């Protein structure tokens, strides 16, 4: 049996680097030490630079693996029932996204074909929500529904401000009404854009969604609108848009103050548009719009018809569209 002896790794490396040729006469000079796997790189024993650009680079596979390992600490979207995102996409759609990642959507002149597709998407959604002949649908793509709700809220605030200014009234104290079951992005709109958020409690009696009676008690002339949710954060329930609209009709009849609805198309609203259900969308006369979340993108659609309807539609909703 052969005897074993201690091997000094540093001495061994010096020996190998100092021997340019092997016994077979072939070149065997070693370059910089390389890793066979991401886990056998120098980062197995030394922490990588996380906050400044390091002087030396690192193998791309090692860096990618470290980032994957860090992201493993996040939750998994397909196990998160409270998330408003899609968790599956066809491979063809994924390939299209990857092929077009380098395009800048803000540069409309450089990418006219993409902008034409964008316009067609706005048109498709507008027709799903019942755009009427003579009306014009204006929309834009956003990075997600949370961004889209900011645009929808700003549209409500600006329209309210213009109505108040035209009447010579104060515009310093806008408020908006929503249920406690509203998604957090709706509250952020109020905080970011100086609007009082009147968050109404939801109860067992109201089926844990926005209570029309509570809405009526909290309306005033400074209310820019009411957020109504299709797909409640708590239960997934569709709130009753028509019931809220009737409350606003009553308030308008008493005070003369017209208040619109902003329908938050929060969860699975595409099924409402494409399947038979108890909601009759033909009675939803569009006036103020929001976003429709479709897997990995959101489009905010605002349907304009010049002025608010002179009277409510019979048995219908004349204040809102998603």
TrEMBL record:
Pfam families: Pyridoxal_deC. GO terms for molecular function: glutamate decarboxylase activity; pyridoxal phosphate binding; transferase activity. One of its GO terms (cellular component) is cytosol. Its cofactor is pyridoxal 5'-phosphate. It catalyses: L-glutamate + H(+) = 4-aminobutanoate + CO2. The keyword Chloroplast does not apply. Coiled coil: none annotated. The keyword Lyase applies. Keywords: Lyase, Pyridoxal phosphate, Transferase. Residues 14-34 are annotated as: Disordered. Its EC number is 4.1.1.15. GO terms for biological process: L-glutamate catabolic process. It is an enzyme of class 4 (lyase). Belongs to the group II decarboxylase family. This is glutamate decarboxylase. It comes from Rhizodiscina lignyota.
């Amino acid at each position: 049996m052969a005897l074993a002896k201690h091997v000094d790794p540093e001495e061994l490396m010096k020996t190998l680097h100092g021997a340019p040729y092997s016994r077979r006469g072939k070149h065997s000079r070693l370059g910089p030490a390389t890793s066979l796997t991401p886990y056998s790189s120098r980062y197995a024993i030394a922490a990588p630079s996380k906050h400044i650009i390091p002087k030396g680079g690192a193998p791309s596979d090692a860096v990618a693996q470290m980032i994957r390992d860090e992201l493993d600490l996040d939750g998994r979207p397909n196990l998160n029932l409270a998330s408003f995102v899609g968790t599956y996409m066809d491979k063809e759609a994924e390939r299209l996204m990857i092929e077009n990642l380098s395009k800048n959507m803000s540069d409309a002149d450089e990418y006219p074909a993409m902008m034409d597709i964008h316009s067609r998407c706005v048109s498709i959604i507008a027709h799903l929500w019942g755009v009427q002949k003579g009306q014009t649908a204006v929309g834009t793509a956003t990075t997600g529904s949370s961004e889209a709700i900011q645009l929808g809220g700003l549209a409500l605030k600006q329209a309210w401000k213009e109505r108040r200014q035209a009447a010579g009234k104060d515009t310093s104290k806008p408020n908006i009404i929503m249920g406690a079951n509203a998604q957090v992005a709706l509250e952020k709109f109020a905080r970011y854009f100086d609007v009082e958020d009147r968050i109404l409690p939801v109860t067992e009696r109201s089926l844990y969604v926005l209570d029309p009676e509570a809405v009526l008690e909290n309306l005033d002339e400074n209310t820019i609108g009411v957020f109504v949710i299709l797909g409640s954060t708590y239960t997934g329930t569709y709130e009753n848009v028509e019931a809220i609209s009737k409350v606003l009709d009553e308030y308008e009849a008493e005070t003369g103050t017209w208040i619109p609805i902003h329908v938050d198309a929060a969860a699975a609203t595409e099924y409402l548009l494409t399947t038979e259900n108890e909601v009759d969308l033909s009675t939803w006369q569009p006036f103020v719009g929001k976003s429709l979340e479709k897997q990995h993108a959101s489009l905010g659609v605002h349907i304009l018809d010049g002025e608010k309807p002179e009277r409510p539609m019979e048995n219908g909703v004349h204040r809102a569209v998603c």
